[in-house]
Amino acid sequence: MSAVLAAAALVLTAGCSSDGGGGGAPTDSGSTTPGSTAPGSSPSRAADQGPPAKGSVKVLRTVAEGLNTPWGLAPLPEGDLLVSSRDERTITRIDGQSGKKTVLGEVPGVSPAGEGGLMGLALSPDYASDHMVYAYFTSAGDNRIVRMLYDEQKPTGEQLGAPDTVFRGIPKGYIHNGGRIAFGPDKMLYAGTGESGDTGLSQDTKSLGGKILRMTPEGEPAPGNPFPDSTVYSYGHRNVQGLAWDSQQRLFAAEFGQDTWDELNAIKPGDNYGWPEAEGRSSDSKYHNPLAQWGTDDASPSGIAQAEGSIWMAGLKGKRLWRIPLKGTEAAADPQAFLEDEYGRLRTVVSAGGDKLWLVTSNTDGRGDPKEGDDRILEIQVS
């Protein structure tokens, strides 16, 4: 084993919550209290001041199964789904009704290793006219974002065009590669990155590691960004893999902690979210505190989505779906857990419109315990 891989293995077995624990090794979460909300967050509130304190989840159906290391999910306008395979480097189209899988092709340049590979997917905000699919992946030298033309009129296997690199230079590592991308209500492209195991990058606003980035669809710094000529939107993050907006166009992000606290944050441009100086809440006013936090055994959060006035957060090591009811940018009630240990590790959650969500499991990622049918995409109804 090389020195680099040996060091990575040590990090993974030393209690890192980045992607749900180090190869199944136990971690000291620093707390046995599941769903601990940040001090100062409100308890249950009246229904007219926010969503109900208690919600519900109903699994409507299994949309598809037999997927290998699924990671990113992008719903197509007509109801089908595109899903990425982190390790196989492929994008597959899933028929939204029958679950039939059609492999569109392998994305060139992807170099899977550890937590890296082909990860987040997003459709262009002008997809109806430009048919562009965006992907975040780990290459041999960095993490980058590309876009590809998806031409459904071409023969199967030839429909995915060559990747055009939109943005490059995001630090890569065996761990903490971030990977989530999403277009916001402003039609700008947002990306959650990790600090690649180099904690010093998070506090360096000139580094792209440990950040939320905001850019134009062409990869240029977006107008109004807090740092001149920079795509950096917020910093002091450890490993961001969840991005979602509420009905008021406010951005929220989920972040992996190390040994103590995982976080759900309300994102304010230019703010410092503390890592590595703070994990979870801090008494230091220069760090933006999370609106909710969890012991790392209970969450290890990846994807998030907004529906019915709440953020819904997929837990990897926690093997559950968390509901965080919102009142503005605060938690309106204690987080509530669903599907605990029912489907194993949960990677991605995406709005399916109204009160429905798509939920992707992650049991074939090397840290789960795959059962027959894994991995799968579920359609769920929430309230």
Automatic annotation (TrEMBL):
Q: Where are the transmembrane segments?
A: none
The domain of life is Bacteria
Which residue intervals define the domain Glucose/Sorbosone dehydrogenase in the entry?
A: 67-367
Residue ranges of coiled coil = none
Looking at the record, which segments are called Disordered? Answer: 15-56, 362-383
**Which residues fall in a compositionally biased region of kind Basic and acidic residues?**
366-383
Renumbered to this chain, the Low complexity biased-composition regions fall at 26-44
Q: Which PANTHER family match?
A: HEDGEHOG-INTERACTING PROTEIN, HIPL1 PROTEIN
Name the record gives this protein: Oxidoreductase
Q: Which organism is it from?
A: Streptomyces lincolnensis
